Amino acid sequence: MDTPRDRYKKSKYLRRYMWFFACLWTGVVAASVLVNLVSIRKEFPALARLEALASFNKDLVYRRWAANHGGVYVPMTKNTPPNPYLSHVPERDITTTSGRSLTLVNPAYMTRQVHELGREQYGLRGHITSLKPTRPETAPDPWEIEALKTFEKGKTEVTDMPMIEGRPYLRFMRPFFTEKGCLKCHARQGYKEGDIRGGISVSVLMEPYQAAARSQTISLATGHGFVWLMGLVAIFLGMNRIGLRIREKEQAQAERDRYLDELQKSLETVKRLRGLLPICANCKKIRDDKGYWNQVETYVRDHSEADFTHSICPECEEKLYPDISKT
User: Per the domain annotation, does 310 fall within a domain?
Assistant: First the structure.
């Protein structure tokens, strides 16, 4: 039968197991949160890079289209005056038969105007630049200068996440190469087909991505917090149920031990009643195990389930009460 000390030890071990599983579960949930947070941290910059890459590829496509056609003619306006850097190109400016004045827009001129529209409408910053710019507007900033230098060393892409005008951006830049259609305007600069002509940098505003990342982080934390709490509840309830089963088993064991103890005592009593009992030859008292002399009825009552009720036998009645016996 377990002693109170034994029960205390079992309860202590059970609590230790409970806290061990609770800590283990907390560690698993925390690891899952950490892995997902790292994934979120990488996911949204990767999405911003894909947006920048899509913009870059789009720029290359319409630049190539314009270059393959030798540029396009558009009406002269305040926003699209004749390009002074194309003055050497024959028929830079033409007049249609209806009298409309048109000017040639080369791929670089078109790209700059598209970038300006994109910045106004979508906040996407694009910049076509080169280490040999033909106009001040295409001059590279310090970050672009370093990127262009790495392109000449064989690198094909540069990304970074700096602050621009106090707001977070992902900056992306890739080189573009001189193609046959580019030589119409840039052959005099010494470029040959296949040379790195410059690069196009794209800056994507990160605030929308950061807002989406925060929202996803909150959802992640809420979901994992709920799962963690449910897991703890399950652990505590499970351990309490195990503890209850242990206590029930201990109670059943204690009850069984009590029955066995009573049975053992009963067997010992029966054995004593079956053995030789010291009895006084005169008064008929019986001596117990402790040396005390007891009346026969007292001894039998204490050592068995029998009890006595007093009466008188016929012989004693005749001897003690002859008058009553004869009637």
Answer: yes
pTM for the predicted model, two decimal places: 0.64
Q: What is the largest CA-CA distance in the chain?
A: 171
- Please tell me the total count of domains within the chain: 1
Query: Judging by DSSP bridges, how do beta strands 125-129 and 101-105 pair with one another?
Result: unpaired
Give a yes or no: residue 172 inside a domain: no
Determine phi and psi for 268, rounding to 5 degrees. -65, -40
Tens-digit pLDDT profile for residues 282-320? 776 777 777 778 777 777 677 666 666 767 777 777 777
Instruction: Show the 3-state SS of the chain.
Output: CCCHHHHHHHHHHHHHHHHHHHHHHHHHHHHHHHHHHHHHHHHHHHHHHHHHHHHHHHHHHHHHHHHHCCCEEEECCCCCCCCHHHCCCCCCEEECCCCCEEEEECHHHHHHHHHHHHHHHHCCEEEEECCCCCCHHHCCCHHHHHHHHHHHCCCCCEEECCEECCEEEEEEEEEEECCHHHHHHHHHHCCCCCCEEEEEEEEEECHHHHHHHHHHHHHHHHHHHHHHHHHHHHHHHHHHHHHHHHHHHHHHHHHHHHHHHHHHHHHHHHHHHHCCCCECCCCCCEECCCCCEECHHHHHHHCCCCCCCCCCCHHHHHHHCHHHHHC
Calpha distance 159→174 (Å, rounded):
9
Around Cβ 128, how many Cβ atoms within 10 Å? Answer: 24
Cα separation, 275 vs 38, in Å, equals: 85
Domain membership flag for residue 258: no
* pLDDT tens by residue, 155-171: 999 999 999 889 999 99
Please report whether residue 269 resides in a domain.
no
Tokens at 166, concatenated: 């106090």
Using DSSP bridges, classify how beta strands 167-177 and 125-129 pair: parallel, antiparallel or unpaired.
Answer: unpaired
- Domain holding 310, by residue range, is 286-326
